[in-house]
């Protein structure tokens, strides 16, 4: 089941660099393990923004929510979720 | 080069069904040929909306613009374009 | 799987009354059969608006999309969909 | 009498964890007792957000306001309230 | 029970004057009878706009909704409803 | 002369309780004296919000501005002002 | 008493030129007579828009409303009204 | 050359009173000297807001920008600028 | 003097093709003559939109307004104008 | 390849002047070197705002993103990016 998720990150400017780097490192590790598991199917950077668009492939809405809440950067993110489905004109099996 | 494109279609309710069907058929054919060519890399339907999110992989902004303007439904669509790039945490070669 | 759906209906003022009544009758019949099936779990009217908030309990996003597109009033509705999940503080089994 | 209430929680990132946990514990206890009393009829989590949609069944607007103001998280919440009524197409007695 | 209701009227410019006048006459008569009944407690014109702010004093949300839907201008109005309650600093018994 | 004023209060969460209580006490006293004087004609609480809708009856725009600026909570309020006039369908002499 | 009024005009593209010209002629005549009377104190064109910003000097909100409603273009205008008063730093007597 | 400028001032609540007063004093002095010079042609207070609408009469956009940036309150202001020109229906020479 | 102008064109879908083509031809001719004159300094197409961003170099706001109003597509355009000036970090003489 | 980029800078008022000046100096140096390289083709100041509109000429979206992220003021900027292409009516070779 596919969800389009936009994440806009806003770290407080006053946050110490070390703390920010630690958060980003953990975020990166978790994101990559979720990609390897297939849950986090696509991850793109929006040019010019500290933001990404991702496609998640999960088994339930609960699973999606748990994954997003588990992200180290979650408290600093504005998140928009859109449920997606296969487009009638799509020829990509992988887009289901 | 990747562009995230959201298309919201709004056909005038008074449009004759035959005309609408013809437009949609032509739109479908062009969309599928562009997908086969690799230009239109992803195409998903936003649940509950007559709208889609797509990822285009083109060689230039001009090419993107020409493709979008050539869509039969273009005059009836609100289109938002975001340039995307590979995310530093992405493990998907195919997301470049 | 739960989805919160807001539907704002906007029929063209110039639409003949008979056509509007027919649409509403069909909408009502479909809505009630979907409620009986359990798919359409909750349906409330927003006071003062020709709009409703509904909760759908479906097996997939595709199913949700198909149901919404099948509504006779679909062409005349602005629809917003939010995926919902059980709240950690909820005591209602039926809210899962 | 039914009210649809959306609550978006925004705790200051700098708030000490212990204080936040205490607030959440108290919020949870109050929310569950209000659910048991029937006042708080539905409570769902919006996927990907620290936010919920709830349905309150109260005897007056004053009662609704008092309940919401009494929530420990109230000072940190953006709240939107919509009065709801039974939908003419609803078959659910429990949605009145 | 008090509800703050804002009504913005937008009659199609192409509507024949006679039809518009008939609508306004009926609207006026119903509004005045509802005021006499006490349901429609306050009615003010927003300067420069074909819009009003009203305060309704009704027994239920259903009653409010039925009243608003019964207004001849309802199909041509954008309506916003806010539930209100007595302010702790109010000295006006009549504002309850 | 009537003005519809909406006031949304946003006290900084970090403000000491004593300071906040003092502000609210002073605000309450001034609001009640202005109501007794007839300047502050109506004052209602928006359910679920730390906000109110008020109707002021003043002799000039300057007087309205001075009253609002004199409110202890003014620095912490988002204020929207709409000039109102008697509605042609109003039967309430007191709504002039 | 001063009111800042922004008027955005939107004539239906399908309106016959003669009808539009007649409306504009009448609008112009009324606007100029109101300026001569001192009611319409300032009138500026917003560059690039079929819109203006005006300052009205009237004796009451009712008078303002009546003037605006009497404008031939009123049915085709979006109007925003802001009550203004003398600025404490203003040295212009004429800005009172 | 005329520019309509709206300035909304938002001083941080935590700013010491003395610092705020100093800023306001300097702002007032500069504003009055600019008014005497004719650059700052009109200055009105928006009722109920810590905001003003002004009309500047300058020789270039650069001059406008320099004036606005020189205002002591500039760092604490949200500014909107609209270029204005003489309205074809204006009879006021002074509005050119 | 530089003005940044965004123009979003929205031709009524029902407009006959011949009329639309005629409008576009005239628009094109005027746009090119204004570019040759130096008034219309830059003209870019926003990818995916029937919209452009332009930079105008004119002698007065009146001139800008007259140019924009003279465009054949003016009645079908939403226009936003921003006055621009030389950036302190700019090294381009031609950007003045 | 052209990108229209709007940058709105918002430095925290509490930032020490020296730190702010250092940031601005570094920003200025990088901006000027990028202009000399041709990447940063146009840079204009929006009058009355601490904001600019720029046109970037880059070889890829990745390059654009890297340039923007490298700007010292990046953490304090709200950035909007629009892909642009040559306008069919443009006569400026240099606008390609």
UniProtKB/TrEMBL annotation, chains A, B, C, D, E, F, G, H, I, J:
Its EC number is 5.3.3.4. It catalyses: (S)-muconolactone = (4,5-dihydro-5-oxofuran-2-yl)-acetate. It comes from the Bacteria. Residues 1-89 form the Muconolactone isomerase domain. It holds the Pfam family MIase. InterPro entries: Dimeric_a/b-barrel, MLI_dom, Muconolactone_d_Isoase. Keywords: Aromatic hydrocarbons catabolism, Isomerase. Pathway: Aromatic compound metabolism; beta-ketoadipate pathway; 5-oxo-4,5-dihydro-2-furylacetate from catechol: step 3/3. The keyword Transmembrane helix does not apply. GO terms for molecular function: muconolactone delta-isomerase activity. The keyword Isomerase applies. Homodecamer. Belongs to the muconolactone Delta-isomerase family. This is Muconolactone Delta-isomerase. It comes from Duganella aceris. The gene is catC.
């Amino acid at each position: 089941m596919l969800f389009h998720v936009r994440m806009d990150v806003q770290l407080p400017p006053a946050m110490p660099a070390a703390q920010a780097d630690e958060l980003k490192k953990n975020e990166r590790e978790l994101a990559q393990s979720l990609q390897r598991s297939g849950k986090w199917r696509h991850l793109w950077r929006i040019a010019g923004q500290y933001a990404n668009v991702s496609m998640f492939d999960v088994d339930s809405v609960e699973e999606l929510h748990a994954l997003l809440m588990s992200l180290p950067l979650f408290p600093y993110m504005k998140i928009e979720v859109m449920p997606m489905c296969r487009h009638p004109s799509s020829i990509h099996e992988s887009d289901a």
